[in-house]
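Translate sequence into structure tokens.
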Amino acid sequence: MTRWLRMTALGALMPVLMMASFITIAAAPPELTGMWQGKLAVDAKTSLAIQFTFTKDAKGAYSAVLNSPDNPALKNAPATGVSWDGSTLKLQVPSLQGSYAGSLKGGAITGQWTQPGGNLPLVLAPYQKPVVTKTAAAQLNGAWMGELATTPSTKVMAQFRFKTDDKGVVTGTFSIPDQGMIDSPVTDIEFADGKLSLRLPQVRNTQYVGALANGQIAGTLKIQGAGIPPDGLPLSLKRGEYAPPVHALKFTAEQFAAISGKWQGKLELTAPDGQKRSLTMIMRFETNSAGQFVGFLDSPDQGGKGIAITEASLADDKLSAKVETIRGEYTGTLSGKTLTGQWKQGPGDLPLVLNRQ
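Result follows.
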């Protein structure tokens, strides 16, 4: 009798526990908040990384924005009509005339992206930050450099530096010293089985992909721009620190005394949309550790620093300074602590007054 009562009580308790578990699961649908990412196969050769970042307000309503790391033009496009019931997602992106609908299966949302002209499959999964193993990081850490042909007639040296911090996370920077880009941050570093992938957020979110073999990384900088091949620019890297060439300026001691120091001014520009913009321009004339006269151009508003002045002359208070790596030239008249002149770069020719600091 005692055994029968114990079994009866247990039999009555089990359905209650099962029902409680069912109620708990049904009341807590999977959380959508955060970033979900997937690959949209545009054609047989092209795919775009698509990221939806979801947020939820105090009333439980979701909103979202769409980004594509592969296409800088797709940045923070707002989504509307975001509907999520724990298993089905629906939303629209009016600026792209697009919509997405999908269902949760195995931790990912499997669905269709729709735009005028057709539908494309798109599977979204919670974004996982790339992790580089300790062994892989040891292969990558250090300085790498390579020659980058920005035009058929112009080549510059590019520099990557990688290191592992105290938490075991690999970080990196990208530089083009001859054009004043110094230690621009690198993100989304992935390196496994000799395959390297990363992004340069300050260079239009450009992607670099390469493969390590025989001590070199053969790769491509997938930058977009007029005159650049669709597949990007080849960039192969080898270990080493790039040392920019020294351009000694042929001033006499008297001429250098008149021009030495830091000169600063504002370059007034008009954007294609008609808006006015000013850029701080700095020219520096210094003596290096070898006692040579050298000069540099800085553009702090554009993050440019230490762009070498390759040639300069001063005669009858007329200064001429060329910056070959960016195809720029300044000509001005010196009067006390002021240089009044013109900055020429490409088709542009703008007035620029520099004052000695």
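Note: Helices lie at 2-27, 134-140, 253-259.
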